[in-house]
Amino acid sequence: MVLEGSSEALCPPPSLELRPSCNKSQPSPPLGSSSQPHDGVFPEDKEPVKYGELIVLGHNGSLANGDKGRRRSRLALYKRPKANGVKPDVIHNVSTPLVSKALSNKSQHSISYTLSRSHSVIVEYTHDTNTDMFQIGRSTESMIDFVVTDTAGGSSGQGAGSAGEGGGGGQSAQSTISRYACRIMCERSAPYTARIYAAGFDSSKNIFLGERAAKWRTSDGLMDGLTTNGVLVMHPAGEFVSEPAPGVWREISVCGNVFALRETRSAQQRGKLVENESNTLQDGSLIDLCGATLLWRTPAGLRHTPTLKQLESLRQELNAARPQCPVGFNTLAFPSLAQREIVDKKQPWVYVNCGHVHGYHNWGYRKEKCAAGPGGTAPASTGERECPMCRRVGPYVPLWLGCEGGLYLDAGPPTQAFCPCGHVCSEKTVVGWSQIPLPHGTHAFHAACPFCGTWLTGEQGHIKLIFQGPVD
Known about the structure:
single chain; about 5% helix; 30 strands; mainly beta
């Protein structure tokens, strides 16, 4: 390796929990086999150790075009047969023109910080037998364990998501998600702590922070930095399943340190260091990649959520009660969990401003209270409906059961619906998610339905469903 200047042992920062001194006498072994980079993600063991699961918000159980391989709406992280983690080892000061030559060792992980056109700092990483590394990003290259693309959603209609497969529809033309967005390091021994770091290693096992990227020397003389659009994390303020309450959104650095948010998403000036918080993931931690938001669930937390079989039982219980349309008196029925985005003729609909559940009808449109248009045309319809039970005016939408059990906070009865999308789940789940502001754009935050990504409306963002029982 051609290097300019002196090298020194890299004393590990506390956030990485490494040894106080680095042993440079032992060479760094190759990090696993490139032909099987994901053997720890989909294990063949009967009872593998599960670190946790990542769930992409805005996809109600699967991507629009189906889950395939590493591109899916939910991924479980398991203990790998062989550790592939890395940790900082040696720091070098080099001339910027010589960086590419210094990084020519394909078996060596490293992070390059370009300080100027003439000066760069390279931090070499060595193999860590105590951790497993999982990488997340938009790239479909083999080193990415979880391929994530932009999730559609927002203020207009139901966000079904655009992270599909093939056909050119799977990725946004101008995606804001980094190809190598972040990496999660999991300890291979109990309690299997998982920590998140901004940026992932590319096919050359390098991370490059260019001259315009936010980076700095730390107080102990080491280096750290932020990615262009940043990796934001919010840990729940309490226990996610018992007392759900939102925490504070923070930004995670390349070395795993925690900072207050920048003024805008890609500003070069970093926020203030938050010393009393860590990059350790806990049940209910949210990870925002500027285009998609991921939820981290621990095995303990997932035990409180309903399985697909339990969700199907809840659906059958709802239908067994034979809810009826209070106007047409026809029996309503929630469609199969596998039937999504296709409205069934028996499907229940709701007036989201009052919660009265009806069957579908094509009357009750509210007319604009304005003068007739040019040429004496009649006033146009607003698209909102007037509930025949209470006369309240508002959106009228079909009801859909939330199919992604990992987004539930409990396995309670599905008595509530998010407004205005109509996704149905338990009361605890709607109350919890309606309090969480999710990032949108460069500096906006909105509460949204976790099943479709639609921004919540109304005073509470959810409504209690009022069903009419059978008249017989």
